Amino acid sequence: MVTITGFETRDVRFPTSLDKTGSDAMNAAGDYSAAYAILKTDGGFEGHGMTFTIGRGNEIVCTAISHLADRIKGRTLDSLVSNWGQTWRHLVNDSQLRWIGPEKGVIHLALGAVVNAIWDLWAKTLNKPVWRIVVDMTPQEIVNLIDFRYITDALTPEEALEILTKAEEGKKERIQEALDSRAVPAYTTSAGWLGYGREKMKSLLQETLSKGYKHFKLKVGGDVAQDRERLGIAREIIGYDKGNVLMVDANQVWSVPEAIEYMKQLADFKPWFIEEPTSPDDVLGHKAIREALKPYGIGVATGEMCQNRVMFKQFLAAGAIDVCQIDACRLGGVNEVIAVLLMAAKFKIPIVPHSGGVGLPEYTQHLSTIDYVCVSGKKSVLEYVDHLHEHFFHPSEIKDGYYVTPTSPGYSVEMKPESMERFGFPGVEGKSWWKSEEARPILEGEKI
Ligand SMILES: [Mg+2]
């Protein structure tokens, strides 16, 4: 019997804006950050969860985490996980906190950290990685993880059960593939940041190609002539006829007609999809873009800033997207993600999780494995960015173009204490990088 006795939050920020890692048309200079939750227990276990931000405002998410974590203080782990649907509802149902959402924005980012910390704690007590807990469940047990409020018009518990029961066929073989690290092919964004120079981009493309990657994503949306040049370079390296796939990502910079016109000018580079062409809330806009670009063979993807399962329901039911990009902590943790995996399976849309951020590949490797083994039964691809993994005890890893399936107990985002201290914000004098001279250009520079 494990009881949650308390919690801590940590504001951890990595100064990635210095070298433009993560830069795109909307996010010019991000400092990859974690709003971090640690659940303390009486049993020697800790539950670690985090949510991803890109710097300023991370402390606001930490404050929201404290409010939510307080709702499970004093509860036993058993009482939380024995009826997960109810626990999830309890966490989103504080009648006062709900006002600052509901189920969206900062409070929902914080929910992701807390829910995922419970999963991490549970997995550690069971001595299993998170993906394995779900894969070992019966279809009915998986259905019980979900709060179906607001989505039963698109997916009933009975339909969810049917999808999961159908996926039982071949599951054993897919588990074996997971154990052999052949379940989740990776794609790379490492070369594609908008702020990287041409030579850095070329060498990163060549390097990732030689490592076995077949899918490459580039940021676009700054300037059409420059994007044509960058995509031209990328196609020169990866070719058109070698089975390599190119994707592009605009990070919401365009209005709908602009997105359509801009993408027509990139059509000859044959991208599989345009990611986040416009506002993440614009279901009808995505649908219009999808229809306009269909004759050019370009699909539409979105999801990394999709607020919750209700928004995903609309994107899927309206036929507004070709690719569903769930995020491990923008959604309210594992439970809400599984609700979206099931809706995507019903509407036959592939899951390609968003993973460009610190800790995200550590999380999403579990989610893609769950999707392949027990929901869709179909192999997809999962983003991998090769930044900041050294700060985690169990970093995600790529081998021969596939994610190495995690085997350590937990949800893989436990960060090393020395990393939390060194990059803690605002940080302790003499210990944190943020108190050093090196940090001054960020702290005192223009906030762009
Ligand atoms: Mg993106």
Automatic annotation (TrEMBL):
Protein name as it appears in the record: L-fuconate dehydratase
Signal peptide (UniProt feature, chain positions): none
Gene Ontology biological process terms from the UniProt entry: amino acid catabolic process; carbohydrate catabolic process
Cofactor entry: Mg(2+)
Organism superkingdom: Eukaryota
CDD domains with a match to the protein in the record: rTSbeta_L-fuconate_dehydratase
Tagged with keyword Magnesium: yes
EC number: 4.2.1.68
